[in-house]
Every structure is written in C-alpha cells, then in structure tokens.
Amino acid sequence: MKHAVGLMIIALMGFTSCRAQQNQISGPEGKIAYKITLPDGFDTATGHCPMVILMHGIFSSKDFIPMPQIANGLAAAGIASVRFDFDGHGKSEGRMQDMTIEKELADARAVWDYVAGLPYVSAVGLLGHSQGGVVASMTAGRLAMEGMAPAGMVLIAPGAVIKEACQGGKFFNARFDPANPPEYIRCWGTMKLGRDYLVSTQQLDIYGTASTYSGPVLLLHGDRDGIVPMWCSEKYLQTYGQQAKLSVVKGENHTITRKRKVVVAHTVEFFKTVFGL
Q1: Which sequence spans correspond to the domains of the chain?
Q2: Domain 13-159+208-275, what fold?
Q3: Closest Cα partner for 243 from 150, 168, 129, 165?
Q4: pLDDT tens figures, 143-155
C-alpha cells in the first residue's frame, strides 16, 4: 500500500445538509456512534423507505469524505442511510490499536441488526469504501450464509490489499516483521495498528467469504488511486461474475476528492435501480 492517504484523509471532513439523526448502538466493543440521514419530509411513523449502511475506511470516520456526500445524494433520491464509526474510530468507543477486521465485522453486524429492526425500513443495501469495502463484502457474504443478504452493494476502492500489506510487512509508511509483528506499529506517526490486526489480517479469506453473496454489486475505482491498486476491484469482479459491474472513474484518487460528484451519482443510480425507485 502506498502512503498518500495519511494526514490528508484526517483533514477531509464533510457535513450533511439533509435531515440527520445521531445516536449510538451497542456493539461488541462498546458504543457505536452513528448518524441516520433521511429524505426531506420523510415521516418515520407513517412512511417506508430503503436504507443503505455506509462503512468508512481505516483511519477515517462517518463524517469524512465521501460518506456525508453519499448520504446526501441518497436522501435526495428518497433513500435513507446510516453511517457509523467503527470501533476505535471517530466517536465510537474502543482503541484503534485493538481494532481488527473481525471486530469491524461484528460492528457491521450490530448495525445491520439494528437497521433490520427499524419499522420504516423496507430494504437494506451496503456500501463500503477502502477497508470498509472489505468489511461490507465479507458482511454480505456472511449474511448470505445465514439466508439473509443486502438488496445490493457498492464497493468503492475496496482495500483487499490490506492482506498483502500485512503479509509483506509494510503498511502505509510503517515496516515490520510479518512473522513476528511488534505490539503495535505507527502509521503517519499517530495511528496505531496492533499486533492482532497485523497477524489476523494475513489470514483473512476476503474473496472466499465475499463470494457467497449473489446480489447485484457495483465496484467504483479511481484510475488515480495511489492507495488501493485496481487489481483489488478486478478480483472482486472475477469473484462476483455477471452480478457485478466495475466502473473506473477517470481522474479520481483514493480519498474521493477529485470526482466526488461522479462517484455519488453512480452510487445513487445503482441503488435507485436496486430498490426500484
């Protein structure tokens, strides 16, 4: 993985202009901070609408680009969304040093269970960016194994390269012995990744778990992405086959700051089709 994300991603905060509700869900690692964005004028007591669960990337947050902008775009199309902070990120409880993919999968499942219980939600989709794309794809696969599955899924630059990065002993600008990682490494001087993450990520069956999901998938990947290589999305495309489509966004980077409107538009159109809107 290359190292262009760093402090840039920390500075890229977004703010939602649509009607949003903020609260907390009880997750395996503590309280999960989240925000629900509803279409303008939607009444949760009498109406029904689909909802998309948005999952951010590593070192990011529900309030960083592109999550608020995607939430706004979906709301304008009559689709609700819930975006949340994984444990150790943003306003959720836990330490980033203790974060693992398995724990993020547990967070995602807790949010899924919460959304599935909302009486006004008619259908549920998933969206993940970067590491959040890995979690979204594996969550969809696990749900499918249980006889449940999202109506559709968008993966934006899904960061499956995290496995190879941990196996190779280089994660962003940090180097380590993959056979014997330290208690933690520091990325960009402040972000700590713990030994459990560095070891367990090497063993992930990312594509195998994802492959059990058979619903529609949209893959979005910028051709200027310096963090997650294009082969990650291409391998997902091979994994999903005819149910998936890969759209390469020309000029877009990993942090979705150059062609953000294009990414949002593709996402909204995909979910409108999935939900029959």
Answers
A1: 13-159+208-275
A2: Rossmann fold (3.40.50)
A3: 150
A4: 999 999 999 999 9
